[in-house]
Design brief:
The chain contains 25 helices and no strands. The protein has helices at 2-8, 15-23, 25-58, 62-110, 117-130, 147-165, 168-176, 179-211, 226-230, 234-283, 289-317, 321-332, 336-344, 350-376, 381-384, 387-399, 401-412, 443-489, 491-497, 503-531, 533-548, 550-558, 562-570, 574-578, 590-594. The longest helix is centred in the middle third of the chain and has 50 residues, at 234-283. GO terms for molecular function: putrescine transmembrane transporter activity; spermidine transmembrane transporter activity; urea transmembrane transporter activity. Pfam families: SSF (PF00474).
């Protein structure tokens, strides 16, 4: 989908601009609501879960944690924008991987409480004998055949389709990525990401089960309550049991890194929507670049404060991260299929695009609440958050468009949209102040340079389209192969057969999980440094030039911004500039030297 957006709407700032360009205002407002609902739900999950963990580990008041967690995020997002999001994503993810691998090697190699995959296996077998888990094959904790696990599998798929496809944060990164990076970046990122929940669950999830009846467990002799599990306290409690205060510190850093990194992306996503899809579209279509930046900054601050207050309200209402995680698909996933078809199928008509998400949302809410009422007779946080009502709501939300879209297409006929129209979306250019200093008469040179730049841009765009066209085919194949492998071929036979892991199989499972985690660290921690080595060297060289004053001399000589001069050097043009006979840099006056 990232490649389709870049190929068909290369000048779009948000996915909502594509919706408006194709269908108009009414449809735009519908998807605007779904997009904002997605961002609000994700941010609320981050703050409720993060504040619960911080409060559990440090004793900090939960309300204070709700406000303090987004504070630093707002500050660096305010000044750094999406660049800050990229940089913090990188740094935070590297830290997260390091901490996860520390936990893995502790559990499977160095811990006095466990120390090996075989020891963990024995503890889980013993636990199944004393406290068998209802709904699992033979009550075992070492099987994929799990009733609750199967239900969560479906809910997780339905909900996360919504939070990925309707979260403008993912589209922002697709827009910002270079065409050559879109395919390998998303594939490597997706495969690397999979190691995080898999390795964490295999390590700290199973360690928590094995250690709950050990005196080292923080709540011993009491096991964790369902409310604590839903609040996300399994990981920090297991970390404390394994490593004491060091484990608490590591868990706190891990959660803080994850929450702040993801929150930054949500701030950027919401500020982009308010800036381009609300303010510029409906209030000030002629707004300048500077004005839009001001709106973006204002939105970042306002959204941070509003979500902090909203999270406090959820805390007092007893709504946990787990509840929101199960609920998100019910609220938003009806918009997934029509949004995909908006970019992929020219036949989707206005009626199907506009009404399908709304009708699907109504069906999902009705299914969720009616199932709750039928099973429990009452509606409250506990009953509405149970498995079967959430399963019904999520499945109806994601799958109902499969019926609604064909029906509305048959009634109102197929469209025949020309995707070339999406290229009419206008990009917003920054407003740069005009420099008054000019050392040479370069009118003709400027005209020539403008023509050269236009030709270069056109050539670059044509090359980008060729790359995207090629990547589009590869991406479709990879999408099918990876989805079938990870969602069907791997788990389904293990689920259907009711296979209970042997000790050798479990050891192999652990080894593969750890290797996958290490490969993930290489993919997102080491490879980006290698890939960006030239850009890093270029940036460091530019910083050195600025600190030593060389940028000013070049600027006075060539009447160019330092970034342009740095770019010339990077592209090898410096050889032509500095070695051109008869054109040495002019001597600067004493005042100019000081400046």
């Amino acid at each position: 989908m990232a490649i389709e957006l870049k190929k068909k709407a290369p000048t779009a700032h948000t996915f909502l601009e594509v919706v408006r360009q194709r269908y108009g205002t009414a449809t735009h407002i519908v998807y605007l609501c779904f997009g904002l609902a997605t961002n609000i739900l994700v941010t609320a999950m981050l703050l409720t879960g993060g504040s619960a963990v911080v409060s559990d580990l440090t004793g900090m008041n939960t309300v204070a944690a709700c406000f303090l967690l987004p504070l630093g995020v707002v500050i660096y997002t305010l000044f750094g924008g999406i660049r800050a999001t990229f940089l913090t994503d990188y740094i935070h993810t590297v830290i997260i991987y390091v901490i996860i691998l520390v936990f893995a090697f502790t559990v499977y190699a160095t811990s006095d409480l466990i120390g090996s995959p075989g020891r963990l296996y024995d503890l889980l077998v013993k636990l199944a004998e004393t406290s068998p888990l209802a709904g699992n094959a033979e009550g075992s904790y070492l099987t994929m055949k799990s009733r609750s696990g199967g239900i969560f599998y479906v809910i997780n798929l339905a909900g996360n389709f919504g939070t990925v496809f309707l979260d403008n944060g993912y589209w922002n990164k697709a827009i910002a990525a270079s065409p050559a990076s879109a395919l390998p970046g998303y594939v490597m990122g997706g495969l690397a990401w999979f190691s995080i929940p898999w390795l964490l669950a295999t390590t700290l999830g199973l360690a928590a089960l094995a250690l709950q009846h050990n005196p080292a467990w923080p709540t011993y002799p009491n096991p964790m309550s369902a409310a604590d599990v839903s609040a996300g306290l399994v990981l920090p409690n297991a970390a404390v049991a394994l490593l004491g205060k060091g484990g608490a510190g590591a868990a706190l850093i891990l959660v803080f890194m994850a929450v702040t990194s993801a929150s930054s992306a949500e701030l950027i996503a919401v500020s982009s929507i308010f800036t381009f899809d609300i303010y510029k579209t409906y209030f000030n279509p002629t707004a300048s670049g500077k004005r839009l930046i001001w709106i973006t900054h204002t939105t970042v601050i306002a959204y941070g404060l509003v979500m902090a207050g909203f999270s406090v309200g959820l805390f007092y209402a007893g709504v946990s991260m787990g509840y929101l995680y199960l609920l998100m698909g019910v609220i938003i996933s009806a918009g997934v299929i029509p949004l995909c078809l908006t970019l992929m199928w020219k036949g989707l008509n206005w009626h199907a695009a506009t009404f399908t998400p709304v009708i699907g949302f109504i069906f999902a809410i009705t299914s969720w609440l009616s199932t709750t009422k039928g099973l429990f007779g009452t509606l409250n946080v506990t009953t509405t958050g149970s498995e079967m009502p959430m399963l019904a709501g999520n499945v109806v939300a994601l799958c109902s468009p499969l019926v609604i879209v064909p029906v509305l297409t048959l009634i109102f006929k197929m469209d025949n949209y020309d995707f070339e129209e999406l290229k009419n979306i206008k990009s917003v250019k920054d407003d740069y102040p005009v420099e008054e200093e000019t050392t040479i008469d370069s009118t003709e040179a400027s005209k020539t340079m403008a023509v050269v730049n236009e030709e270069a841009i056109a050539a670059r765009d044509a090359a980008d389209q060729l790359i995207l066209h090629k990547y589009s085919k590869i991406a479709r194949i990879l999408t099918v192969v990876i989805a079938l492998s990870l969602l069907i071929i791997w788990p389904m036979p293990m689920y259907g057969s009711g296979y209970i892991f042997s000790k050798k199989f479990f050891t192999g499972w652990v080894v593969v999980a750890v290797i996958w985690g290490m490969m993930g660290l290489l993919a997102v921690g080491v490879y980006p440094l290698i890939e960006s080595r030239l850009a890093i060297a270029h940036t460091l060289r530019g910083i050195f030039w600025d600190l030593t004053g060389q940028s000013y001399k070049l600027r006075a000589w060539q009447n160019a911004h330092p970034e342009e001069m740095h770019g010339h050097v990077q592209r090898g043009v410096d050889a032509q500039i500095f070695n051109a006979p008869g054109s040495p840099p002019p001597e600067l006056s004493e005042r100019e030297e000081k400046e």
